[in-house]
Specification:
Blueprint: E1 20-30, E2 33-39, E3 51-56, E4 61-62, E5 67-68, E6 72-80, E7 83-88, H1 93-100, E8 106-113, E9 125-131, H2 136-145, E10 168-173, H3 176-179, E11 188-192, E12 199-200, H4 203-213, E13 217-222, H5 225-238, E14 242-245, E15 261-264, E16 267-270, H6 271-274, E17 277-279
Parallel strand pairs: 9-10, 9-13, 10-11, 11-12, 13-14
Antiparallel strand pairs: 1-2, 1-8, 2-7, 3-6, 3-8, 4-5, 6-7, 14-17, 15-16
Length: about 290
């Protein structure tokens, strides 16, 4: 049994059937991360929180027979002038190959996929909480919440927030090298595990202080499972709405393989189609095999 636990009223851009071959336009180093950019002039514009399945066009495999890797899921960090941006970290053979791509290389992409974020109810401010590579979808969401026009269609309506309900952005990282990823967003308050940048401690400690100050908020979170579980528990305790971006192992990205099924309060959900953004209240907990796309 699966159940719809996506935020009420969430819309999403629908990907065309089949993956498409893009050309890498840049691969920029950002501390411990890289920002991979690829031209996608004919693809639909993603909603903030959606993701894509990525694979290198060449040498996408390992072993003597170059057995193909499964494509990797990454949240859109931005989409500007028909160019898709993704935040990557080299944590294994698949991400290492993607991080090796250079301008002019081919990149297979299937997307945009999944359910994205939805705007806070009137009178609630937005609290963005990110950890590590999970900050990626918060960048494109922050742009929308601040009412920035889309670069490829300035006439498109942005979400925007009333000026009297500002947003706050709280980001946590392992160390100073990883904290350079924070430059993707504006006006972020930082925390670091080793105390090298910002608050010495967890980003959820910053979140607790923000909610102590003003609990009339909607929390948008993306990051590693322990962080997401701490956010979920804290928001449940305070009766604060939370939208959490999850991850699970995916092979297809569009609900066919059931490889990303995770438990919810009312059954099960497929992260790729019922998420990745889900209502935190729909989850008993965020387990270790959930996390942030990327």
């Amino acid at each position: 049994m699966t159940t719809d636990v996506s935020p009420a009223g969430s819309g999403r851009a629908l990907a065309p059937f089949g993956r498409r071959l893009l050309t890498v336009t840049a691969n920029e180093t950002l501390g411990a991360y890289c920002v991979l950019k690829a031209a996608d002039p004919y693809g639909p514009e993603p909603a903030a929180g959606q993701f894509a399945m990525l694979a290198a066009a060449e040498r996408w495999g390992a072993g003597e027979e170059e057995r193909p890797y499964v494509p990797r899921a990454f949240s859109y960090a931005r989409f500007q002038d028909g160019e898709a941006h993704f935040l990557l970290e080299d944590v294994g053979p698949g991400t290492r190959r993607l991080c090796e791509l250079e301008e002019g290389d081919g990149l297979w992409l299937l997307g945009p996929l999944g359910q994205g974020f939805t705007a806070p109810e009137q009178g609630r401010r937005a609290l963005l909480v990110g950890g590590g590579v999970g900050i990626a979808p918060l960048a494109i969401w922050q742009d929308e919440l601040k009412g920035k026009p889309h670069a490829d269609d300035v006439s498109q309506t942005s979400v925007g927030l009333r000026s009297d309900r500002p947003l706050a952005t709280l980001l946590g990282f392992r160390d100073s090298a990883h904290s350079e990823g924070a430059t993707l967003l504006e006006d972020a308050v930082l925390a670091s595990d080793d105390g090298s940048v910002g608050h010495h401690g967890r980003v959820t400690e910053l979140l607790r202080a923000e909610l102590d100050r003003d609990a009339q908020a909607t929390v948008y979170a993306c990051g590693p499972p322990p962080m997401l579980e701490a956010v979920r528990a804290l928001c449940t305790e305070r009766d604060v709405p939370a939208q959490l971006a999850l991850e699970a192992g995916m092979a297809c990205g569009f609900g066919a393989c059931y490889g990303c099924v995770v438990p919810a309060r009312a059954g099960y959900l497929r992260v790729c189609v019922d998420g990745p953004v889900v209502d935190g209240a729909a989850l008993e907990q965020v387990s270790d095999h959930m996390g942030a796309p990327g």
